Each structure stands twice: as structure tokens, then as C-alpha cells.
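Re: the 298-residue chain
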Amino acid sequence: MTDHATDPATDTFVAHRNLLFTVAYEMLGSAADAEDVLQETWLRWVKADLRLVRDQRAYLVRITTRQALNRLRTMQRRREAYVGQWLPEPLLTAPDVAEDVELAESMSMAMLLVLETLSPTERAVFVLREVFDVGYDEIAEAVDKTPAAVRQIAHRARKHVDARRPRKAASASLTRAAVESFQRAIETGNPQDLLDVLAPEIVLLSDGGGVKRAALRPIIGAETVVRFYFGGSAKPRATITCEHTVLNGSPALAVHLDGELDGVMALHVEDTLITGLYYVRNPEKLTRLGTETPLTLR
């Protein structure tokens, strides 16, 4: 058996694993699929003759990108049949991810939904170029295009994303304050307190995967969101408790009903008000949260 502690192939893969996972996750919006891509990357990596690999990091990124592209094309067919709103699988992240402002923005629920509007190749080029600053020649090898074609794709993708890019999120301290106010409002069941922390133009997206109750379309406007959330207040309600967590580089809440995890809620805060709510209730997207290690930059 190979001693992994001294195996150069293993050492190199481990050194770049978080980078490769993040590339795959930003391309796919699914942590589970990103892990599968890493497994496929590993199987190809250990078969490579490292003596012929000039840039091992670039080679690993190329394999990961190609495997993610293959998976992304098959995932699109699944998403066409998805019941209701589709949201990315929430990802636990360590505090150091939030400190990298550009990376945290690119991993946010709001930005991942924008990336969903790109074609698979556009998404790969955008992620590699704009998020990880990979060179055009290196990207060209990863997506089987010429460097000139990659430059055109990058320009087109950047223009597309800029037109749909969410406004800059509030600072970490203002975001935490808004999250805490939101938590108090839903735990106490006070509609006015909830209304006070929501922006007039807020958009709520909820993902139940056809298994749990969720809105089939976006809910827009503060009063509409409050009515939706407290729509069943005349009936006996479960006890709601929230636990602070960090998802996709930003403060978020794990929502429990009578002690059982109901879902996780990511929030987009601008100034002091919440402009976006992303509530993932689909049980399939929550299974990893209790066991996975938060993603770190290291």
C-alpha cells in the first residue's frame, strides 16, 4: 500500500483540494455533486504520469473543470423537472471564507442563482477567470476552446452577470444585526418586527424540492412576505428556534420547528435591511449540514 504521507500525488491533491472543491461547487451549486467531481478528478489524477505534468495545479483544475462541465450538462435536465424553485445546496463555510470578500460574494446564494443563467461553458469560464483569476490559456485547455474564444466568452459572461449581479451586500456587522433582528421576529411571531427588518422590495425564494411546503414562485414585497410567513398564524404553530451558522460565506440561520431542523435560511442584506431570503427546506439538500466540515481557504 502506498504511504499517503509521502506520496507526491496524494500530497499535491490534498494541497489543492479546497480550491478544486470550490471550483466544482461554484460551477454546480451542489456540494454533493462537487464531491463526486473531486472523486472523479482523483481517479484520473492518480493515473497521470506526473513527470509529464508541468503545472500540477493547472492540470488538476483542468480535470476538475472538465468533469464539472460533464456533470453540469446532465444536471440541467434534472433541474428542468424540479418541483418549484431550485436553490443551490447550502454550504457550511469557515469564517476565513467570509474574510475574502470576492470569494464570499461569488459563493452567495444570490450570485449562484445568477450563474445559473449562464451556459455551462460560460459559467466555467466566468468562475475560473473572475473568481480564481486563471489565465486565458489555462482556461482554454480546460474548456477545449482557443484563448481568443475564451476571451470572447469571458467578456460575454461578465456582461451578462454584471447586468444581473445583486447589489453589494452590507458589512459583516450590519448583516449580523439584521440576521439577529430577523431571528427575534420569527421566534416571537411578531409580524411588525419582521416587517421592520425587510426591505420593501424584498424577494423570498423557498426550495422544498416537492417534499416540503414551499412557494412555487418568488414572493416579492415586504408585506407579501410577512403574510406568506405568518399565513398560518391562526392555527397552532410549532415552536420556532434559530441557530446562527455561516453558509456560503455569510451569516445565516438554521431554523428548527419543535427542535427538529426544518431548513436553513440565507439572507442578503443591503444597508440595514434584508433584500433577499433564500429558504432551503428540501431534506436532500440538508443531509450534509450536520456532518460536513466547514469549507476553509486553507
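Residues 56-80 form the longest helix (25 residues).
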